[in-house]
Design a protein that fits this description.
345 residues, alpha/beta, TIM Barrel, 7-stranded parallel beta sheet, two-stranded antiparallel ribbon, binds coproporphyrinogen III
Length: 345
Amino acid sequence: MTEIRRKIIRVLDGETLSPPPIWLMRQAGRYLPEYRETRARAGSFLDLCYTPDHAVEVTLQPIRRYGFDAAILFSDILVIPDAMKRNVRFTEGHGPQMDPIDEAGISRIETEHLIDYLMPVLETVRRLRNELPSETALLGFCGAPWTVATYMIAGHGTPDQAPARLFAYRYPKAFERLLLLLADVSADYLVAQIDAGADAVQIFDSWAGVLGEREFEAYAVKPVARMISSIKARRPEARIIAFAKGAGYLLKQYRQKTKADAIGLDWSVPLEFAAELQKDGPVQGNLDPMRVVAGGVALEDGIDDILQQLGNGPLIFNLGHGITPQADPENVRLLVERVRGRGTV
Ligand code: CP3
């Protein structure tokens, strides 16, 4: 049997493809009526994540509609704290919530049977690899230690992660222990996703942008570098995308320091700087999700700028962050068509 080299994998290995492959962060989500329907049938959001029948279905929905080059496993970064018994819940209109952790709580975290708890997610990965079209790559993912820790410490989302920043200054030892624990279980979890059939994995550091220079090094770079080195020591063929949202100029050395194969870029990264970063390897991004909501020329100009400035190097076309519930599914169709060169450029 000849091995299929899916487009996203070719780009992760350094090839330039024209048109570039495309997928969107949060491509399975509330902007799709079929997602809302399955979501309602599943019960709670975590039930949706832990029921392979439902999780497979919602992962496939955007692939059926748009034929993206990659499917991303439907789950959430907060299944790790959930497996740590932090009483994670997703209540309508409140975002995620869990029991906030303190110094004593950190010293009591149990990680021994954590991967067993996540078996339903790994079952979803296995089923997806069988059900996806052979040309569609399957991406696994997890949250980066810093981003997951911000939710664990505050107990909910916050606009600037002040609780976690403060905790890190006050209790540096406990905080480093938490990051190390998260890095090690998250690396095991990604290895398990790769073994279950994920072609590549993405590490989401959605809150990297609130860190100062020294803290970025200690809390974003170091734990992600530890994860990647642990994964690659065990699975040398693993391909890893690291997305440090809001990191700006600090992205300059991020690939070299973490050894990520590709780096994800949010829409605030100037395309000229993105092109510099692309000289060292593949980049992914970085359309403002609001352009997908706006549609029309805002959408077209955003797409064309990215293709013009990054299209001549290894690029995975994506948004700069997740698609939002108010996006019009028809605009997503126009986006895919334009990137694939069937638009009105
Ligand atoms: O990209 C995909 O399609 C795969 C699924 C996916 C979800 N969450 C599904 C989800 C992925 C990759 C994530 C990652 C995630 N989760 C991140 C990192 C990326 C990012 O967006 O910054 C973070 C920070 C979370 C934590 C989280 N989960 C928040 C803050 C929320 C609430 C905000 C919201 O949009 O409601 C969630 C819930 C969540 N995760 C939803 C989805 C589709 C919406 C829940 C619902 O359907 O009611």
